[in-house]
Amino acid sequence: MSLARRLLPRSLPAIHTLPSSTSRRFSAMAAARSAIVTDNVRPAPDKVLQDIADYALSYDIASPLATETARLCFLDTLGCGLEALKYPNCAALVGPVVPGTDIATGAKIPGTPHQLDPVRGAFAIGTIIRWLDYNDCWLAAEWGHPSDNLGGILAVTDWLSRTHKAGGHPAIPFARQFKIADVLDGMIRAHEIQGNIAIMNSFNAVGLDHVVLVKVATTAVVSRLLGFTREQTIDAVSQAWVDGQSLRTYRHAPNTGSRKSWAAGDAGSRAVNLALLVQKGEGGLPSVLTAKTWGFYDVLFKGKPFEFQRPYTSYVMENVLFKISFPAEFHAQTAVEAAMTLHKRLAAQGKSAADIASIHIRTQEAGNRIINKTGPLYNYADRDHCIQYMTAVPLLYGRLTADDYSDAIASDPAIDALRAKMTCEEDPVFTVDYHAPDKRYIGNAVKLTLNDGSVLEEEVHYPIGHRLRRDEGTPVLLAKFERHLRGRFPEHQVQAILEKSGKDILDLDVDEYMDLYSTK
């Protein structure tokens, strides 16, 4: 018998059919393949890309309110970055990737001796800005912190200004001198792009982090700063949309971690890098959003196109929310304010948190979804995203500072004992007011039932950082900035910065102003 004959089976096995579920899956895959577009004719750029580019390059910012608010936002954002450097985990992230590779014409990192290339500089500045969750905020269908964009804007304008003053560089012919006015103009544009897209489009609802909007907005504004044409700007913004987008995993139980504190710095640095690649000739993807099967809408947004409530103007900067009193996730700001008032009311009655039998918190839908958290809290990031923790601390101590999220404070058993007495639910009225364009409230109510049966309740609709309280909030915001300066610099340096930070700041060279913040 031949070898071939010996190797043949005596009988062939029966042919098995695939399970119906598997068959259906393969049928669905085949249907998807049949829907793939094979026509390689490039379409016109998506309208969303065109609108962003036209606004970034051509819109005339003519709002004194927006400019003055941007000045306050600029100072507050820098101050938040200085305060964050007190924390070793933050400070460890902001130097060069390779130690000793600072560059003479690089962007200066406030509160440090470092001068870094613009990509790493954007990461460093963006990271210190966001670390303490103390910079500005925008709340809508999507939330976020538009001043996160300052990382990329400041790194690029400082780097290009220093390069220009150093006599230029053959590879950087677009270097020029920038003023603080250019930085504020860029902030207004970045705020508007990020905030306007966020008004009606929820990225968190599909599991994406809001820093995608930091990347898009920073890319658009950096394109303007680099002197891009309209076509180049569209290309750069398309690259931001197609770039890998962050999941929100690091912001939510049970995975909340410190990546949420440097995610915006990462987004800003990627934006600068993508813009510089386009400056070197990299093209774009005109239908990055709308392409069937492979576009952003189909892959990441459940096939739904973006919706817009209003055109791009200066609305977002004019209405931005400042975190003035507390370093707390913004949906809890008014809860903290209410708890502070209740602490005083308890003291006035000769009572304390020990006299509380139960606590009920009413919040907005977004607050209920993001920061309503029970069970153990493992780290700083966990605690500053827990409305119960942020309410318990002021009820106990009459304060809420960045240090109150530390392990040392969190180890006080009274905090978790008080958390155990809390319930939290959505108040539909707060949710409606949260989304109303003419209100943009962030309401919370805290109700205490005491051991003797008496009840104390405080309801706050909008915090001191809201536009409707701007006159009240501005001096407190400037005092916060001054406090952060004194926490980092000697008095003579503090005074030099304060002297240059008034309303005439617009005419200052970016690099000269940033020299004031160096510790070299």
Poorly predicted tracts of residues: 1-9
The order of strands across the largest sheet is 4-3-5-6
User: How many DSSP-defined strands?
Assistant: 6
What is the helix fraction of residues, given as a range?
A: 40-55%
* Helix and strand pattern: HHHHHEEHHHHHHHHHEHHHHHEHEEHHH
Q: Approximately how much beta-strand content do the residues carry? A: 5-15%
Q: What summary fits the major beta sheet?
A: 4 strands, mixed
State the separation between the terminal residues, measured CA to CA: 89 Å
Alpha-beta classification: mainly alpha
Looking at this protein, list some descriptive labels:
520 residues; two-stranded antiparallel ribbon
Structure explained in plain terms:
The protein has 23 helices and 6 strands. The chain has 520 residues and is mainly α. The strands form 2 sheets. It has a 4-stranded mixed β-sheet. A two-stranded antiparallel ribbon has the order 1-2. The chain starts with a helix and ends in a 5-residue tail after the last helix. Residues 1-9 have low confidence and may be disordered.
List the helices and strands and how they pair.
Layout: H1 3-7, H2 20-34, H3 47-58, H4 64-84, H5 88-91, E1 107-108, E2 115-116, H6 118-130, H7 150-165, H8 180-200, H9 211-225, H10 230-242, H11 259-279, H12 296-300, H13 315-319, H14 333-348, E3 356-363, H15 365-371, H16 380-383, H17 387-397, H18 407-410, H19 413-419, E4 422-426, H20 428-435, E5 444-450, E6 455-460, H21 470-486, H22 491-500, H23 510-515
Parallel strand pairs: 3-4
Antiparallel strand pairs: 1-2, 3-5, 5-6
Helix pairs in contact: 3-9, 3-10, 4-6, 4-8, 4-21, 6-7, 6-11, 7-8, 7-9, 7-11, 8-9, 9-10, 9-11, 10-11, 14-17, 17-19
